[in-house]
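Figure 3 (text version): structure tokens given as input.
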């Protein structure tokens, strides 16, 4: 038995923030990572590294980005994203089911927590590449996102791991925790390879169950066992199961998940050598299924607020596939995820030629769909990708509410997509102190949770960048609280 003050299970963003926070309090900390070292980082390593943060203006952002140049400030409209904005959008996205106290904690501590992360060596920068459009000579940020980590998710994990190693956090790789116990006021952790650990405070940061095929079919429903896994292959619900075995209550939207349009050529399991296979700029184009029909309002809102539900929608289509179509009105606005080497890009000089190249698509129905769409666009409304521009269609059974451009300027391009699941919404219930709650509604002594296994926050929909922020905030809180148990 190896004894510590604090044990953290899970080595992604939430777990690393928890470990560093506990170490700051002088605790002896062990971090148990199920993955081997070369695949470390959990889902965090697979992300683009965007963080949603409340800020009043550029002066707040400079706390996070001290090397932001005056010329960048002059050429950018960062606007503001207040705590009321942040709270209101996440509450609305959850249909007001999110725990108000936990949500308020995440929102109110977001700026301070990201500032703390900069002191841990994380470097933030503006998201020019995928969250800003140049309008009237200035970069206009949109959708509540302005900040990302240099190097993306891999850069985030590397920065936090580097600080953890230097600060004395003891890392244990290929160490899959499988059973929890409690004796004499201390938590005991038993791993699959026989290693055993004990500590006064225990933090679970093992992610959800998106990589558990059986649980997906059981809780998300029929067909979800067929979805590609966009994130870490190691997130199979271990932490949720272990916590429930010691009395934690199941909580949240267990039939819900974050799942996106994902390239059909993407591997079945997330691969750190093949990232950026998502296709999230559908709001600037037209999306059709194999029947040649549209099935979503592509412009319902900024994609930051709709993209996480698109995987579920495409999974319901014939063959579980769809095609995103663009012309030269919008192709130049697409980010790098549309230019990765393995993307299924199809190009043609005419819509007729393009339709004929899309394998398995009803060509005549598709051409009818596009003719109807083009005729329905309100061309008199100016196109502006940086705002909800109201450039919509009229008279269609499925409208496009914003950013509707007719597909008429060749060459035309199409991208074949399917469902890629990122993480699941259901999990454990925690309070604003990151304490895990039992079936009687009481905190379980010395047990904390942070990250995607927390079930209090996300229901039905998700706002991009909120996951990393909530993991950092609750992880930091959990680490300090667990250290106090020693």
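Below: residues designed for each position.
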């Amino acid at each position: 038995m190896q004894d510590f003050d604090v044990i953290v299970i899970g080595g992604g963003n939430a777990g690393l923030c928890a470990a560093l926070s506990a170490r700051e309090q002088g605790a002896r900390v062990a971090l148990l990572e199920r993955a081997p070292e070369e695949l470390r980082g959990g889902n965090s390593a697979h992300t683009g590294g965007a963080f949603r943060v409340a800020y009043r203006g550029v002066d707040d952002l400079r706390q996070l980005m001290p090397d932001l140049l005056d010329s960048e400030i002059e050429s950018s409209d960062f606007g503001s994203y207040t705590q009321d904005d942040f709270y209101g959008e996440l509450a609305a996205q959850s249909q007001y089911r999110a725990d108000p106290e936990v949500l308020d904690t995440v929102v109110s501590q977001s700026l301070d927590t990201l500032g703390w992360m900069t002191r841990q060596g994380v470097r933030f920068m503006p998201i020019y590449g995928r969250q800003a459009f140049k309008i009237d000579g200035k970069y206009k940020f949109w959708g509540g996102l302005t900040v990302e980590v240099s190097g993306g998710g891999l850069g985030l994990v590397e920065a936090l791991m580097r600080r953890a190693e230097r600060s004395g956090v003891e890392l244990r790789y290929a160490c899959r925790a499988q059973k929890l116990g409690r004796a004499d006021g201390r938590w005991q952790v038993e791993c699959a390879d026989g290693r055993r650990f004990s500590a006064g405070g225990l933090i679970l940061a093992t992610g959800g169950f998106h990589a558990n095929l059986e649980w997906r079919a059981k809780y998300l429903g029929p067909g979800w066992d067929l979805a590609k896994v966009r994130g870490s292959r190691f997130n199979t619900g271990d932490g949720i199961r272990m916590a429930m075995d010691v009395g934690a209550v199941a909580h949240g939207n267990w039939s819900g998940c974050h799942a996106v349009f994902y390239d059909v050529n993407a591997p079945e399991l997330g691969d750190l050598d093949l990232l950026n296979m998502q296709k999230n700029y559908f709001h600037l184009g037209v999306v059709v299924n194999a029947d040649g029909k549209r099935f979503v309002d592509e412009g319902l809102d900024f994609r930051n607020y709709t993209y996480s539900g698109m995987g579920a929608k495409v999974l319901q289509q014939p063959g579980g596939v769809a095609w995103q179509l663009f012309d030269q009105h919008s192709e130049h606005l697409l980010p790098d995820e549309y230019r990765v080497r393995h993307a299924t890009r199809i190009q043609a000089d005419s819509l007729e030629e393009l339709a004929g190249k899309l394998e398995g698509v009803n060509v005549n129905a598709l051409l009818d769909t596009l003719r109807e769409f083009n005729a329905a666009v309100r061309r008199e409304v100016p196109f502006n990708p940086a705002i909800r521009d109201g450039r919509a269609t009229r008279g269609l059974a499925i409208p496009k509410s914003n950013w509707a451009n007719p597909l008429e300027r060749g060459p035309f391009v199409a991208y074949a997509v399917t469902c890629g699941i990122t993480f699941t919404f259901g999990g454990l219930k925690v309070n604003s102190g990151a304490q895990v709650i039992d079936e009687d509604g009481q905190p379980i002594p010395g047990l904390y949770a942070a990250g995607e296994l927390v079930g209090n926050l996300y229901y039905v929909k998700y706002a991009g960048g909120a996951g990393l922020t909530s993991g950092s905030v609750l992880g930091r809180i959990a680490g300090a609280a667990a250290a106090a148990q020693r």
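The first strand starts at residue 2 and ends at 3.
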